[in-house]
Amino acid sequence: MPLKGMCIELRPNLCSGHVLLQFEEPIRDKRKTRIVIKEDDVHIVENGVDGDSELVLRHDCFGMDIERISVFIVSGEYISFRFNYTHIDLDALQRAGVHVEIHPLKLSFEERSHVVALQCSKCYHEVVPGCKYNRLREFPSGFVDPSEFFCHNHGDTSTAKPPSLVPGPSDMYYGLNYVVLNMAVLHSRVIKCEGHIYCKRCMWLLGICILNDAAVKLWADALRLQPVATLPRQLFQQPTLTQLVLRMLKDFWPDAQHHFCTGNNRALLVATMPNRHQHYMLLEILEFKLRILRKVETTSSVAEAKLQQFYACKLYFRVFGSCQHDPSILAAWQEQITIPKLEMSPYSFLALQRRLTSNMELVPNAWRYNTAEEKLQLSYFFYETEEQELLRQQKEQEQQQQPKQGPEVKPKQQQLKEYETDTGVDASLDEEDESDDEHSDTDSETHNALHHKYAPIAAYEQQLVKRWPKQKQLKHMSNSPDGANL
Ligand SMILES: [Zn+2]
Ligand SMILES: [Zn+2]
Questions:
Q1: Side-chain half-sphere CA neighbours of 242 within 13 A
Q2: How far apart are CA 237 and CA 385, in angstroms?
Q3: Ligand nearest to the CA of 122
Q4: Is 317 exposed, middle or buried (CB count within 10 Å of its CB: 0-12, 13-18, 19+)?
Q5: Taking all residues of the chain, what is their mean pLDDT, rounded to a whole number?
Q6: Which of 119, 143, 99, 191 is nearest to 388 (CA)?
Q7: Which has the closest alpha carbon to 59: 33, 87, 36?
Q8: ipTM, 2 decimals?
Q9: Where do the TM regions start and end (predicted)?
């Protein structure tokens, strides 16, 4: 029976590891599945036939001498156990492993250097016209006192004007996965509805109004830079989910990066979905930087488990939507002022949710929940390199397009050049409780066609016509007093 998932927590200070194995089917008595230690290797053997055995852990890659396994648990489609060794070559492990450093938050362009225009990442409609920005400044996060943002305010406070966070017409402020611009620069290129900003052409959610509608916060993954030869298409350098998580954890707990944390280790993420539902993710961090062994896919035809070291964040999480019931746990978390809160883009939120949900499946049911009341679920976030994230994104995109368009075969070089952030989001954005005709087959085909740069204009027009009644309705709403400016 083939392995579906596998994760080994490695704790060199205890000379032990904890193996989580997930199989395709539940393990039943008649199959006689056994774990065998043979010459310091750990095998899974079925029905005692050697040909069926699958190698789980080979000792000689990292010089491990596994001598004992314990806490052996079989439940459902899971097997888990602990193993002990007396020796391991940590240097070899480290050399062959993946170690991702945090990359500081930096825009892809500099002050007064390039004319930068911003496009909707979905339909490439220009939403912010070209501008050579005079000031690029980091926007204060919720954890920083806004008065520290402007140095001139520290002087004579009696005559100084109160600090304004509203950027000027050629200023761009930025923060974790967003940019802040003056409302006036958007003109009539967007649709404003209940404090949210949508692309006027395709209704893609771009961001939110802030500072009494004087400014907009636009999500970096809802936008891209207008292609010019000297610039990448992404607003930020290294815009991967791994970097977002690393930066977020550092913002929440600046001093706790490498330590096992107890006590104040909870955080709350908020995102507004395109239908303006608020979704929340409760996070409880158990370990920021845990050594993990994962199975890596080898290109050779030999089906053998090759293990590689990664680092991971081990955590509990739970997602709530404002469209769902049972908000008592959520309310309890929201009331605690010591729990840091972060508003993030719906696209990153859903990508993180997908990643954590998929890794949660590695954990046997018995260990899945933190408490019976809160029911947060155990999961891991594996820190991956930019290239690994990119390949994963392309795989997800191909899986999404496969049923209708067939596999797209491209040379590898070309694959790595393309980089889109909106991949794989569409499917999850339409919620089950939303019933309209947007789920018809022709429409989703149009969606896929629009992913392609050279989408025929006919497909686009077809989409536009379909959305027109809704758009008109939104326009009408934005003419109401609380949605002025249009
Ligand atoms: Zn658009
Ligand atoms: Zn919802």
A1: 22
A2: 13
A3: 1
A4: buried
A5: 76
A6: 99
A7: 87
A8: 0.85
A9: none
pLDDT of residue 315: 96
Ligand that comes closest to the CA of residue 190? 1
Band of the pLDDT at 120, cuts 50, 70, 90?
Answer: very high
Full set of structural domains in the chain with CATH: 3-96 (2.60.40.790), 116-225 (2.170.150), 241-384 (no CATH)
Ligand 2 center from residue 277 Cα (angstroms): 5
Chain position carrying tokens 């022709």 = 442
Question: Which residue is listed with tokens 């060199």?
Answer: 12
**Distance between Cα 467 and ligand 1 center (Å):** 12
Ligand with smallest separation from the Cα of 349: 2
CA of 279 to the centre of ligand 2 (A): 6
Q: Among all ligands shown, which has an atom nearest to the Cα of 119?
A: 1
d(Cα 191, Cα 205) in Å, to the nearest integer? Answer: 9
Give SS3 for 264. coil
What would the pLDDT profile of 397-433 be if each residue is shown by its tens digit? 888 776 554 444 444 444 443 343 333 333 345 454 4
Tokens 């994230």, located at residue: 389
CA dihedral (281, 283, 289, 291) positive or negative: negative
> In DSSP terms, which residues pair with 114 in a beta bridge?
none
